[in-house]
Amino acid sequence: MSSLAATLSPPQAPKAEYRVLGAISASHMVNDMMQSLILAMYPILKGDFHLSFVQIGFITLTYQLTASLLQPLIGLYTDRRPQPYSLPFGMVSTLCGLILLAYAPTYAVLLLAAAFVGLGSAIFHPESSRIARLASGGQHGLAQSVFQVGGNTGSAVGPLLAAAVIVPFGQRSVAWFGLVALMAIVMLLQVSRWYAAHNLAAGPVSLRAVPSSPHPRGVVLFAIGVLLVLIFSKYFYIAGISSFYTFYLIEKFGVSVQSAQVHLFVFLLASAIGTLAGGPIGDRIGRKPVIWASILGVAPFALLLPHADLFWTTALTIVIGLVLSSAFSAILVYAQELMPGKIGAVSGLFFGFAFGMGGLGAAALGLLADRTSIEFVYQAIAYLPLLGIVAALLPKSQRRTR
């Protein structure tokens, strides 16, 4: 670990700090893996605690709503008063949620555990997104993609680990993953030292020059509204896939719990690969084409999904994961370019809104599933990617990195 600390020194030239990006991406992987363990445990928790689908949805709603409400506030505060050492503190909160999840005796304690995980994400995402931008060397899309792919990889690995460890050994085996969280805390301490040194070298926040937006205020606010509509479309749809995919496969095709979790892993892995591609492509050709293609382009596959057999369901979800996941990095960097100087607030707003829509979607779709069926839910959400057409209303991005 000392070698990592030695290499994470403040940059002297505008070049990408790949070791910093790697460290923050690895920490993002651990953070989101903890969240995905909750999702992957849903079949186990449903049986052990005799939960309905709407109660399952409320677990997702709890941790995502906690994150969504707090992230914009934390981002706005840290724009004015950077908090380099908030990152390991956020991971400590996630660790506490994990331990509570392992030993939760009641549904109420499950919700409390989910809230701790949400708090950890609320603290982690705005500052770590800012660090990714600082370490980008001007390749903002690439940096955000590297950062995001860590989270997506963690989300993908969670169900696989659940199938290998939690299903055979039970709920309390979740506590073993706390060792991974402890390693992430140590790594984040090294990143925080780099960030503190970099922030000190940049001088007081009040004296730094704030770049102006490339568009008038009215255009910026309208564009932010359009981007939030796109986030709603993406994450409401993703909530239906990630929260209920295992149940959909079990109910429709009769697969085992472990097989369903492997299918969920394949979908989330495809999402991680798509995330890694979206940012660099946006750096090269512009953010707007990536946003347009990634959300509206997935609509035909989403409409076909409810009518496919098991083989084509797997194939279609891989394509959906690859295409749809490329949007977020492009959307986030596009928004940061619209509002330069407010990186934390913008990151917190978009991460928070994404979490909120995911949580609201899980709760609403869980209620719909209880009253109808999982198959009906998949038929209903298939139309959401058509909202990607509103990307045509976005002004052209003014900044591009070759």
UniProtKB/TrEMBL annotation:
Pfam families to which the protein is assigned, alphabetical: MFS_1
GO molecular function: transmembrane transporter activity
Membrane-crossing segments per the record: 51-73, 175-197, 218-240, 260-278, 290-308, 314-335, 347-370, 376-394
CDD domains reported in the protein's UniProt record: MFS_FsR
Transmembrane recorded as keyword: yes
Record key words, sorted: Membrane, Transmembrane, Transmembrane helix
Statement: the UniProt record of this protein carries the keyword Phosphoprotein: no
Domain Major facilitator superfamily (MFS) profile: 20-400
GO CC annotation, single: plasma membrane
The protein's name in its UniProt record: MFS transporter
